[in-house]
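Q: For a teaching session next week I want to show students how multiple molecules come together into a single three-dimensional assembly. I've collected the sequence lines for a complex. Could you give me the predicted structure tokens for the whole thing so I can convert them for display?
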Amino acid sequence: DAGITQSPRHKVTETGTPVTLRCHQTENHRYMYWYRQDPGHGLRLIHYSYGVKDTDKGEVSDGYSVSRSKTEDFLLTLESATSSQTSVYFCAISESLGINQPQHFGDGTRLSIL
Amino acid sequence: QKEVEQDPGPLSVPEGAIVSLNCTYSNSAFQYFMWYRQYSRKGPELLMYTYSSGNKEDGRFTAQVDKSSKYISLFIRDSQPSDSATYLCAIPYGQNFVFGPGTRLSVLP
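A: Of course. Below is the structure for the complete assembly, covering every listed component.
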């Protein structure tokens, strides 16, 4: 299994509070991704990183920010959580870009915003 | 139209059955196709991938691509209860992936 650890695994919080999710990898892969998974929508890309301090927006980036200060850590922050951000969040990593390079996923963070 | 579509299921089959899981896609520029398996409360894991049209076999699993119809399939032979999971097709494109919403499969003993 790819060495990807997501923390926390579960979190319940209130609307309006900031929330930070962490993804830690031990594979030294350059590329890291944050997705959210919702019924009927599948996996949707929030943000991704192509190197330390290099990030870009994905399909559903509004209300989210990311930071990557070290190769192994990629943080996702919900600046002011809303109920629509209740979801399961997955981090993924890949060694390089290329159409034959798979992404490897962590086991997710279940986030509930009340 | 979504870029990648899948029948969400759920699909229930008896143990030993042949299972066919399917995706359709809209962008003819897609060239590479992957299948992921996701067990309940776990992350997706890569099952197999294929590049060209035709079939690719790996044990009980066969991936099939028909680029002319923009249709990809995953066949599971002699299905087992341990195959019960959600199966997602995934297509790399540019710097990202496009994922289907997944089909939930239950294999009943």
